[in-house]
Write a structure and sequence with these properties.
Oligomer: single chain
Order of helices and strands: HHHHHEEHEHEEHEEEHEHH
Bound molecules: 3,4-dihydroxyphenylalanine
Number of domains: 2
Strand content: 15-25%
Length: 353
């Protein structure tokens, strides 16, 4: 039996030389140390030996087991590290190769205009406030001085969800919400960007969904002069330092007086061109002094407080600024349009340098 142990010891070293991967190694391990393996087989025979031999063979067998385990462990480590080496070699990547062109996304023109306007107003101490797109009749109309039978409601053909709830037709309800929510009834300076909805048939200049930015300032002694100064800053930021504005009388139920604002044409400088239809002026936004009824409906005392408000369409501003002729471009996810716009923007930046 001692002889057998010696032979196995020699044989295992020879067998291990032929092993080339972890699977073969595992199979060999079973052959030697498994339940029916060579080592167990000898162990079962020890019982038949006489006592004097039992001890010695037992020790030799233990020794064999340890020896085999050590050899297997060593080879396992080596094979594992070989396998890793091979994997690294196979999966080698040449990072010096030139890459394929990666298309980088660009900021949507509307987002750009909205961001620019937000940044300007934040720098003047305004808060940016958002309101719900599903709005109540109360905030969208009633509190803004548009009673149920008010003809101006027709101007804003609406998507009603129930008799009382609708997709907001304007961002003006955020004015009313903010005034209502201000428990101290103190001063307010906000702009409110967001999506609005109207039952319009989509064409070059109409979209059933578009964006607006609302502005509201409420304080003591606020006058049209404040409105004018603020809007001058706005148009100069958006259309250039030489721009002038002019007011035209208009009508909005929530302002009195209501004032339509034109900007001097940034294309011809005011001398007349196709863009300004030879008038030298381009209509840009609606505004006015907050109607006393609106102040009152939102808990402000019109004897103490006054305010101005304005509302503009980022689509219109972007269309004018970048010469975009169809409002639908903003919503059809046409990558060509967005790419062209990006190029146009870079050209305009280069020109102004
Ligand atoms: N909400 C108006 C609209 O959708 C725009 C507007 C005009 C808002 C004058 C104002 C304002 O706050 O003062 O046509």
């Amino acid at each position: 039996m001692k002889e057998t142990i010696k032979t196995i010891k020699e044989q295992v070293s020879i067998d291990l030389k032929n092993v080339s991967n972890l699977k073969e190694l595992m199979d060999l391990k079973v052959e030697y140390l498994g339940k029916k393996g060579k080592v167990v087989e000898i162990g079962q025979q020890i019982g038949k030996l006489d006592v004097s031999e039992k001890k010695e063979v037992g020790m030799l067998l233990n020794d064999l087991k340890n020896h085999i385990n050590t050899l297997f462990d060593e080879l396992t480590l080596k094979l594992e590290s070989d396998a890793l080496e091979q994997k690294l070699k196979d999966e080698w990547i040449d990072i010096t190769l030139p890459s394929t062109k990666v298309n980088v996304g660009t900021t949507h023109p509307l987002t750009k205009v909205i961001d620019e306007i937000e940044e300007l107003f934040i720098s003047m101490g305004y808060d940016v406030v958002e309101g719900p797109e599903i709005e109540s009749d109360l905030y969208n109309f009633e509190k803004l001085n548009l009673a149920k039978d008010h003809p101006a409601r027709d101007m804003q053909d609406s998507f009603y969800i129930t008799a009382e709830m609708l997709l907001r037709t304007q961002t003006s309800p955020v004015q009313a919400r903010t005034m209502d929510a201000n428990v101290e009834k103190g001063p307010i300076r906000i702009i409110c960007p967001g999506k609005v909805y109207r039952k319009d048939d989509d064409d070059m200049t109409h979209s059933h969904q578009f964006t607006q930015i609302e502005g509201l300032v409420v304080d003591e002694n606020i006058s049209v002069a404040h409105l004018k100064g603020t809007l001058e800053i706005l148009v100069r930021k958006m259309f250039g330092n030489e721009r002038e504005i002019r007011f035209r009388p208009s009508f909005f139920p929530f302002t009195e007086p209501s004032l339509e604002v034109d900007v001097s044409c940034f294309k011809c400088g005011g001398s007349g061109c196709p863009l300004c239809k030879q008038t030298g002026w381009i209509e840009i936004l609606g505004s006015g002094m907050v109607h006393p009824n609106v102040l009152r409906a939102c808990g402000y005392d019109p004897e103490k407080y006054s305010g101005f408000a304005f509302g503009m369409g980022p689509e219109r501003i972007a269309m004018l600024k970048y010469g975009i002729n169809d409002i639908r471009h903003f919503y059809t996810n046409n990558i060509n349009f967005l790419d062209n716009f990006d190029r146009l923007e870079r050209e305009m930046e280069d020109e102004s340098k």
